[in-house]
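Problem 3 from the worked examples.
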Amino acid sequence: MDPIESPGQRRAVVAAMVAAGALIAQQVAGRATRDALFLSTFPVSSLPLVMMAAAGASGLAVLAFSTALARRSPARVVPAALATGTVLLLAEWGLSLVQPRLAAVAVYLHMAVFGATVVSGFYSLVNERFDPHTARHVMGDITLGASLGGVGGGVLAWAASRLVPVPTMLAVMAAFNVMCLLALGRLGPPERGASGADTPAPPLEHTGPLAGLQVLKEVPYLQHLALIVALGAATETLLDFVLNARAAAAYTRGPALMSFFALFHAGMGWLALALQMTVSRVSLRRLGLAGTVALRPATVTVAAVLGFLEPSLWTALAARGTQGVIHNSLFRSGYELLFTPIAERRKRPTKTIVDVGFDKVGTMLGGALLLLIAPGLGDLGTRVLFAVAAAASLAALAVCRRLHRGYVTALEDSLRSGVVRLEMAEVYDATTSMTLARTGLAYDRKALLREVAALRGELGAEEAPPVPGDALTQTVALLRSTDAELVRRGLRRADADEPALVGHLVPLLGRNDVFLDVLRLLRRAAPHATGQILDALLDPRQDVTVRRRIPRVLRRSDSQRAADGLLLGLSDPSFGVRRQCALTLARMTEKTPALAVPRAAVFAATVRELEGAPHGWAEEVDRITPEDAAPEGQPETPAERGLSHVFTLLSLAVEREPLQIAYWALLGGDPGLRGTALEYLENVLPEEVRRSLWPHLGARARATTAPRPRQHLVQDLLRSGATMEMSRAALKRAPPQD
């Protein structure tokens, strides 16, 4: 089903687009206003100092903002910050009329404190308002709204520079804030199952204003994101200074500078919008999230090298413009989604620190470099700044290579977090108890008790008439009897190390009345007779009931030969045989991880299963033991059996615990956790497996639409601390772990 099919979701998406557009329009107009005000009243040599002061003020604001997000939801903190910023903008407008120099510094500090901090909080709000699956589909629309806002803010600033004094733009910025506040008011709470946008944050592992830093210290994935942000900010600071210096030398102060910066930011907005609409989805599909994020440092490196070779206003425009365009389109599309698998209890106190705190750390680093290099600014100094910017971008590019693995690991952690909240062991026990409450086939209570007693070796047998011949012949004669009690006597006399008996024991697996006794004996014989047992398993002339029970014999084996034979059994024409082979391989590899099961073979078997569905799953499965029974009141359909088998297969090639939880989530009623499960599968399964699996997960509607990222069929990332409310019926249908 389309994730934004409901009217409430559509209204929320439109509201988020408007809010993003107004917020970014305010930011773009604010940057042009900030630069024009400052360079009209101060020399360009003052820029490094005010940049560093602004970064310090922003760092303090980040600590306060992250602490607020740790205690309150973004739905409360972001509107409060916007309202405060609106009041301050109006106050700065009044101050500019009497103290323009003081107002210029105040506006510079204001943009540092309320700029990226509020943008980061807004995207945190969006991540919590929409579940991960929905977020992946709507994030492009929201980013499109932001890009349109950037264009509108730049054009408006350019037009205003010709009509009104520069300080009047502060009132226009306040109006954009009010528009954003009104749109956020219509965003509404999340739908059931998603994390409540208006609820307090989950309990933190650490408390206090430095809680986010402590969490950051414990999560390497967040450290990589923080490093990319810091390196990007340092690069932007260097390129921004070069551009401002060249612009101040080329244009007169006041409206001319305002017009230049407005046109520059408007042009960046147009180009960012074009990339967002034409390249973003292709990039996400082909390069993935980490690859898309890496495009920013890669392109900036090229532009900075060009600036090093030919320093001028135009190369400065190209380098700074490239950085801004990629950042506001492709980089933002991938970067924001990299946060969605982080648990709310970790994301709320850390995202602002990563987004803004480390941005300001990078800004301060860039400012310090400027103080060292800028005094000698000329062509040589400019070349040095371009070279340092290229080096910082190359370092960021190296860090981007680590992001994909960290992203998948974070998804796995988020799935585990959901289970911890559900007390997985308790749920599993409930499922097992319900399964044990039923018996398979036509079992009655007396038959079940007799087989349980047989497993314990407590069942006696009446004396049987003597059989002529040697001991082996006598045992074989007993095993070939139609009388169950005589067969059991033969089983007690049988020597598990006698290979000649295996051929007589295997056919007895097809008899329900002695199955458990035969199973026990064959398991003791398996280490010495693996080849004979596998020959019977793979022999199509053997009775299918026998063949689908043979894998149980090998379930306690740790032999690579047994694993190889079971792998061949995954191609058997009988679904029951394939299912039992997969279950046994799963048990064996869990017990003995050193067993080699080629991932390529597993994925090929999975694709065969999915392509043959649902006809290949119609065969009735064995119900010979209590563990095989479907939960009471929940008859197992062919589709349910088949999907369970597919996930058992995948557990041979993908980490088992998060995969099993993903299976439960897909059957459950929590859209947030379902979105995380889909996103996890999107990132760990090969293309051919995903293409065959999605239709069975109800993802067909989005799979056939216009080009979208590879993960756009079913995705987005989860807040890992989200509550997982899964139906009991879905849990009862979890993949069998017999």
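Problem 4, a separate protein:
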Amino acid sequence: MSPRAQRLFVAAGVFVVALIVYSVTLTPTVGLVDSGALTVAAWSLGNAHPPGFPLYLLLTKVAMFVPLGTIAVRANFASAFFAALACAMVSLAIAEMLLFVKPRKKEPSPQVLPLMAFGGLLLAFGRTLWGYATVAEVYALNTFLTATLFWLLLSWRRTREQWRIVVAAAVFGLALGVHHVTVGLTIAAIAVLVFRTGINVKTFVVCALVAILSVAAIYAYLPLAASHDAAMNWGNPNDSERFIRHVTAKQYRSYVSTDAQSSQLAGIMSYATRELGPRWLPLAILIALFGLLQALRRDVTLFWFLALVIAGNIAWALVYPIANDQDAYLLPTFVALVLAAAFALSRASRNVAIAMLALPVLAAIVHWPYRDRSGFGVTREYVDNAFRAMEPNALLMTNNWQLYAPMRYFLDVEKQRPDVKVIEHGMLIRGWYADSLVQRYPEMMRAVSYEFAAYRPYLDHFEAEDEAWRSDPTMSATMNARLDDLILALVRTQLENGGHVYATSDVALSRDAVDANLVQRFAAEYDLVPRGVVMQFLPGHQTRNVPNVPIETKNALAGTYEPDDVVVTEVRPAYHQALLLRGRYLALAQKYPEAMHAYEQALAIGPRDPNVERELQQVRAAATPAP
């Protein structure tokens, strides 16, 4: 077998091992965070949240034609496939990096093959990529394209074959159609490698044109997708203004901040120390840092390439403090660290290189409990809890994205509960979303056409000049008042037509200052009665019977999760709040035994809260007959 065939064989082996592990630990249903929305967008060939991720949607749609389980499982498996490819491409990039160090050798150094396996499997069993390999998300594909780009650049540097850098330019353009921030941040590193290696003007111009044409071609998908009635058409980028707003992710610019850099840095360090093995043995990270020092001595171009990938990636993470997916933004850094770790071992003996395979094996053992999602049923359970609580012909209003996004999947794709209408309250400040409700629920929106017509013009002004609106209390108050009118009209109309209205507590009892007037108006007109994980709007004010709608929490409490996992930070607290509200309502109705049970369930889910424990003691005392 030729050396090239041997390298391809090792890369294929890495791919197969990674794909088997990812398949065994695959999520069996739709995931949390953005998985539900992305799955619906791909399934309907629509548009996802900014910047749109067109290449991801197209490739995931292709994967959905494979007759493998539900649509959600097919979307999840696409991520597993892309992540396994990413690991294989990293192993090939390691080979190019190591072969460049000793270009005069016809045969590869004996440690190249085991180090290829070492690096590919180290990335495969790292905590972050594995997490996004088992659920529908853009980051597995993004990592595959990033790794492919690195391999092409490193192989071009070694062979100087021009087709490789031209293909790299095309991959760069296509990768911008997945997650353009993390890919775009590698441009400084790419520039250093390319110009230090040497490129003529003609080739540079060709590469620039290829990259531009690639990104333009893939983003042409957005207006095409907006031209048909897709189930998920985020941003509705059907004209130049909306297109630019969507691609540049204008709605997320407010997240960029330098105020939380210390906490962001602490988070980055936490992700790094847990990434490539146990925190108590950060050996892979130490080897990677040593590899960077070795590169500075032995291959300065490689050093600057890897260092700039890491620096650009971390710089963005420091100023973009998002609530979820923070670790995903660091995946290019983790790829660079894996390459550096392999470089650190380039002068080790073959036996030592083989022995280092113990590190990815250790990482797999340590990370398995956190990344095995084969029994994950949190989203199914959460949505079922909400469906169970709602009577036929229901309207649900929520600000809970962890409930809304998977519910959209079960409503749109699996066609469950067609009688349920759901509105994401926080997204009503987006014109495209408000307009989508007119298409999705025409009869309901026709009944509130007066209030909608009074509110809709404010959205265009707000989206065009959102910063000016946020800084002008008068304009903001007027817009919020019109929105409140629309929401109250929706509630009133639904009830008058014989339907039922529900809301999660983040809407019904919102503590956000902008919702203060809305909450007061809710309380003035309706009783808000706890009903499972939601609250039901009932007209008038009187003592109500609280139906005993069970809240299943088995899946949310099972499994091993990081402290920052949304199951821990959002799903369990939502259950805790729903049970607590039920307990308080029952206590007010003097139904003390039922109230005690609800309090005890809340305390079993949430952290020990002295105030809640005190309330429970008061309920127990009230339930105890006087001597």
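Solution to problem 4. The mean pLDDT is 92. The radius of gyration is 27 Å.
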